[in-house]
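Here is the promised in-class demo. Please do not try to memorize the tokens; focus on the logic of going from shape to residues.
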């Protein structure tokens, strides 16, 4: 645990050093007071939304805009099995951002705010062995696997939400840290013999409520990206 925090601390120090260098000594690559007009840059990037591309426009020395989209997921599906039970999670991650940017020093360092669209969605299926002895705790009771059947669920961290970010934005190296304000939502269902039983339905609703309460404790989607943008105008 201590080594993990130390590694995170070194990464943070490196990020701050990059920000400081680009906003001061590295300013020669950015829009300056002697470069009026519009500057456009585009390039590839990878982020917590997957692999994609982005474009930046600088309208003036201190103001600009950024648009990004990620179309290739960077996360594999999950499949685990044991005692003839199988858990699968089909994870879909995609989307992008549209932000206005403010460059307080006139360099690459910027603060951005705008809209986040897309996010993460996971379809989860728990196939229980009907001939096994597994029991499932739902709500206030425990149920035999044969009576529960297949449990299906969805966890959704997607939509159109506000996003805030800071980092290096524009021509050259881009390193951005941010967060979208999301309202995660979860659902569960089962198709076994008890699927229409009132008590079982109440316990399943309690389980959904508890799951949503746990998800709401972290009402943000972390947005971290790194990439490179080439000036085209």
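The designed amino acids, position by position:
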């Amino acid at each position: 645990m201590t080594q993990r925090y130390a590694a995170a601390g070194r990464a943070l120090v490196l990020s701050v050093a990059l920000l400081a260098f680009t906003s001061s000594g590295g300013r020669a690559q950015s829009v300056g007071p002697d470069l009026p007009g519009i500057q456009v840059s585009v390039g590839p990037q990878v982020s917590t939304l997957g692999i994609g591309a982005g474009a930046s426009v600088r309208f003036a020395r201190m103001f600009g805009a950024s648009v990004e989209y990620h179309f290739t997921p960077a996360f594999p599906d999950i499949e685990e099995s044991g005692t003839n039970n199988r858990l699968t999670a089909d994870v879909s991650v995609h989307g992008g951002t549209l932000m206005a940017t403010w460059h307080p020093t006139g360099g690459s360092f910027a603060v951005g705010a705008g809209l986040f669209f897309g996010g993460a969605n996971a379809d989860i299926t728990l196939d229980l062995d009907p001939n096994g002895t597994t029991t499932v705790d739902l709500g206030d009771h425990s149920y035999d696997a044969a009576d529960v059947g297949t449990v299906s669920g969805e966890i959704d961290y997607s939509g159109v939400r506000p996003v805030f970010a800071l980092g290096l934005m524009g021509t050259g190296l881009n390193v951005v840290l941010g967060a979208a304000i999301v309202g995660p939502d979860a659902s569960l269902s089962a198709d076994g013999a008890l699927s229409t039983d009132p008590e079982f339905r109440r316990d399943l609703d309690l389980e959904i409520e508890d799951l949503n309460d746990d998800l709401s404790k972290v009402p943000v989607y972390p947005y971290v990206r790194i990439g490179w943008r080439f000036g085209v105008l």
